[in-house]
Amino acid sequence: MENKTPLSPHIQIYRWHISSLVSITHRITGIINIIGITFICIWSCLLLLGENNYEVINLFLKSLFGKFIILGITWSFSFQILSEIRHLIMDLGYGFELKITRITGLIVIFGSIILTIIFFTLGKNFI
Amino acid sequence: MVQISLPENSKTKKGKYFKDKTGSKNLRKVNVYRWDPSSGEGPRIDTYEVDMDNCPSKVLDILNKIKNEIDPTLAYRRSCAHGVCGSCAMNMGGKNGLACTTPHENIDGDIDIYPLPHLKVKKDLIGDLDGLYKQYKSIEPWLKSSSKSDSAELIQSKEDRAKLDGAYECIMCACCSTSCPSYWWNGDKYLGPAVLLQAYRWIIDSRDEERQARLKKVADELKLYRCHTILNCTSACPKGLNPAKAIAEIKKMLATANI
After folding, report:
1. Which residue in A8, A19, A108 has the most chain B C-beta atoms within 10 A of its own C-beta, making it the best mutation to test that interface?
2. Chain A residues lying within 8 Å of B121, measured CB to CB
3. CB spacing of B10 vs A8 below 8 angstroms
4. Coil, strand, or helix at residue B145?
5. Do A9 and B10 touch (CB under 8 A)?
6. Confidence label for A1 from pLDDT (cuts 50, 70 and 90)
7. Domain regions of chain B by residue span
8. Chain B 125-144, residues with CB within 8 Å of chain A CB atoms
9. Given an 8 Å threshold on Cβ–Cβ distance, is B116 in contact with A8?
10. Interface pTM (ipTM) of the complex?
11. Nearest-CA neighbor of B141 among B65, B55, B73, B201?
């Protein structure tokens, strides 16, 4: 009898809203960032080991997939920065009203896209 | 543990279809979660065509109409019908709320009605809230004072009383706790927004003398810090309260107090 009792549906039926989306994306980008940083570390270590490695990395980063990875990591970092600031403000006890959470959530989402464009063009043109 | 998919016995199937018999032109389809413990079958989604011309404005009115006029086997909790008792908490259109205060106008398309999420179902729309009530008991939600007198008042200033606004109004309907993904997956340990809001209510009560002990009790990786400000709780609360803010305030107190 006991194990026949069903569990009511949860994530399958619950509607998403901006705060829950930002929260889950914050966690996902956190994981992406850890992987991203690890790769950047490996790449820079490889550079120390010789010229050939530079060619390989350069070729990879110039490829379409490589560019996608760079763009992805840039976005992931941008999102994390903004979302972290939002969390800091919340840790101080501010910005919990529904309207404000919606606004700050939207700032995080659109701000991350704008920041990505800024970082990407900066990196491409000046570095 | 994060468990995205439902266990095999909880997956829903398409159920019966109740065609309209009134001949009304203003119909809405209402999908309702059904499970009968005596049938031995899994849960199903029954669909009812409801005549909206003769139906008052709230979701509870739809359910009453279904029970009275279409299918008397439907089981759900309800009592006051004025958003005070908290009995008719359920998930409507993907969001938790009280059926008696949620206008069906606000739900687009077909109206989906489920029990509160991630609970053991007792029957149809009735979920098992025993776990939540046990957790509520664990925070000892009563005034603790060493005052021996039975007759003297415990004086509270207007400012101190005002601190309880937004916390004492909670009716324990469980809309917030059962909307919280952290509570879904750590509900055995994490206290959840409803209980933490009540913990907060007693921590900030100026008449209570066990503030430190209460804070110490709640200061636990799993009991409190599973809140990741997803804010499903605040957006679900039918009384317009803000459990997420109360949890943040408890965290703040713990960060600044010497315990």
Report:
1. A8
2. 5-8
3. yes
4. coil
5. yes
6. very low
7. 8-127, 130-144+155-256
8. 127-128
9. yes
10. 0.89
11. B201
Radius of gyration for chain A, computed over Cα atoms and rounded to the nearest angstrom = 20
Q: Which amino acid is at A40?
A: I
- Interchain pair A27, B235: CB under 8 A: no
Would you call B73 helix, strand, or coil by DSSP?
coil
Per residue, what are the HEC states of A47-105? HHCCHHHHHHHHHHHHCHHHHHHHHHHHHHHHHHHHHHHHHHHHHCCCCCCHHHHHHHH
A8 in contact with B, Cβ within 8 Å = yes
Q: Which residues of B touch A27 (CB under 8 A)?
A: 228
CATH 3.40.50.10330, domain B8-127, yes or no: no
Q: Kindly provide the b/e burial profile for residues B212-239, where b requires at least 16 CB atoms within 10 angstroms of the residue's own CB.
A: eebbebbbeeebbebbbbbbbbbbbbbb
- Contact across the interface for A96 and B6, Cβ inside 8 Å: no
Among the residue ranges A1-10, B53-62, B100-109, the one predicted with the least confidence is A1-10
Taking CB atoms and an 8 Å limit, are B119 and A20 in contact across chains? Answer: no
pLDDT tens-digit readout, B218-257: 988 788 999 999 999 999 999 999 999 999 999 999 998 7
Phi, psi of B47 (to 5 degrees): -115, 130
Q: Which fold has domain A18-126?
A: 3 helical TM bundles of succinate and fumarate reductases (1.20.1300)
CATH 3.40.50.10490 fits B130-144+155-256, yes or no: no
| Entry pTM | 0.91
* Residue in this structure with the two tokens 């003297």, named with its chain if needed: B152
Phi, psi of A42 (to 5 degrees): -60, -45
Comparing alpha-carbon positions, the chain B residue that sits nearest to A9 is: B117
Q: Which residue of B has its CA nearest to A13?
A: B94
Residue written as token pair 């086997």 = B73
